[in-house]
Amino acid sequence: MDKELNPLLQEGGVFANLIMNAILDNMQESITVYDQEGTLLYYNSAADKSGLVHAFSNQQQLLHADGQTPIANGEAPLQKILRGEQVHNEEIWIYVKKNQASIQLVNGSPIYTEGHGQVGSLIVSHDITKRKWAEQRLEVSEQRYKSLFEHNPDIVCWIDLRGSVLKVNPALEKLAGHSSESIQGHNIMKFIAVDDLVKAQKRFFLACKGKPQNFEMKAIHRSDSLIDLHVTILPIVVNGQIIGVYAIAKDISNRKRTEIMNHYLAYHDTLTNLPNRRMFQERLQDAIKAADEEASTVAVIFMDLDRFKWINDTLGHSVGDKLLQNISERLLLLQDETDTISRLGGDEFTFIVRRSSARQITGMAQRIFECLTPAFSLEGHDLHITPSIGISLYPQDGVDAETMIRHADLAMYRAKEKGRNNFQFYKPELNEHVHHKMLLESELRKALERGELEIHYQPQISAKNGQLSGMEALIRWKHPELGMISPVDFIPLAEETGLIISIGEWILRSSCLQHMAWKKKGYPPVHIAVNLSASQFQHEGLQEMIVSALKESGMDPNFLELEITESIAMYRFDFVQKKLDALKQVGIQIAIDDFGTGYSSLSYLRKYPIDKLKIDRSFIREMTEREEDYYIVKAVIALAKSLHLTIIAEGVETENQLMMLQQLGCDDIQGYWYSKPKPAWQIEKEFYAAIVIYSIDIDNHSHLL
To answer: Which residue among 93, 501, 580, 633 has the highest number of C-beta atoms inside a 10 angstrom radius?
Structure first.
């Protein structure tokens, strides 16, 4: 120490006080000195700036380290020191301003002098507010990290730059089955599916270069199954250096399964599991593209089930659905011969066949018929289904998928018009045919209103005595510009459009009125037979309509005969029987038309209230030439006789046919041999007039006698 300075210090001079004050005022710690009564004697600049000058003498401002609990009376640092105690690193919260706490680390001790004992107290406090807040933020951050890591529902992995797993969270075991012990220390690539390994390695490498990654992959579950994951890889940067990565993997297996299911549903029919219209169109476009590249062909086969709507409506939709499923199963047996078999909807099925000639496609169509020939047994019914098939060929029948489908559809409708249960190739003239059909539909809707429809009557003659026994009412359409339009052309159209209901009612009411008109002229009454379509038979208001027509005309119900086809009678026995019983209660007669043409169960003949069987013209036409048809007709007549039913043969055109039927005991004859269908006035002139003349002649002779 400087010799010149020592005397000043030793003497406790002014200079020593200056030095001490400078030291105290430049300290960061707050220093306060109190006398033995606790009165403040001294404080430095730090105490003044921090607002602690009077803090320790105001006990109410002091709180414990939790920042909430006030320090009890007598336990404050100053009180302890005044009692002669030492205070060492005691954390105290002091609210020097409202809502602003200062956290102090307090140290203090008593001040003693020789001969006087304790004369005061010294308190040194260090402001640790910033440090404590930093520690708290760090603790909160660590807790958040721990919470995010430990409680994260997604898999979180800490991986070093070599790919070794350093740490994993519990979600790994829950989602992938692997425990942390079984995976830590191993290379992460061991747990990735083989197909996604290259992709995962590439993404990991990019993340290690500082580029965050998002991608989907499959990982290997502990059970060796695969799980779908959406993975995010983030680089870990410390002091500007990448030391590893975090991999966060979300289990998206359920989402993937849903996506797969949605994709499947978007491209498959839910009832049959066959490809649907969307897949069919896409595959057809692909097939056409391939055909262009290969200079080959593509065929579209469009199949529609005959009479499916009637089966669906009669037996119920559940039976209809099961039938479609069974049909689909059979069609799949042809899978090797076609690229795609699809269900477009309803009862429409389509096939794509590549690299095949017209001859090969014909063979394919025939195999479809063979596939569907055996009966389908469903809920006690043996259902026989026939298809109508249309075929279009690429490139001659269309240059795009839409045109190919449309042309195959047109060909299919042509097959239906040709009697169903056949196939037709597309021809350009079918477009004109479709336009004609559309014109007919438009005109048919107006025909009834404009009085263009007529009823012609075809006589039914007794095979025993040649007398008129009845007549069948048959509709004709006389168009003012198109002339006479065949029922073959417009009746199916009326069925398709639903016009058959109103047209059928008009036929029935007109026939009843005509019957009464003849009766009023004195002609002997005979049965009038009116055909009922399947749509009419199923119509709820059928019985009420018939009763109304009979009442309106005054016709005796016993002379009205309703003809239903065998196909109507063969399904849904309870429904049909209930309907027929109700009609019989009205008093009308029931006849089965076209008998022998359907795949029927003869049991309905003894169950239903039937009065007459009508042998189909197809058997009559060949019975004189084909022995098989002759014996069929013979068997039907014998069956009808045994059941006490009247039997009538339609389509009789030759004398030989007539003689055979008479020999077999047929009751009535209908056909061109006697008369074609004719208007009422002509029937009156050619048949009724002769009967009246004959009747008058007999009456006159009786009078003379």
So the answer is: 633
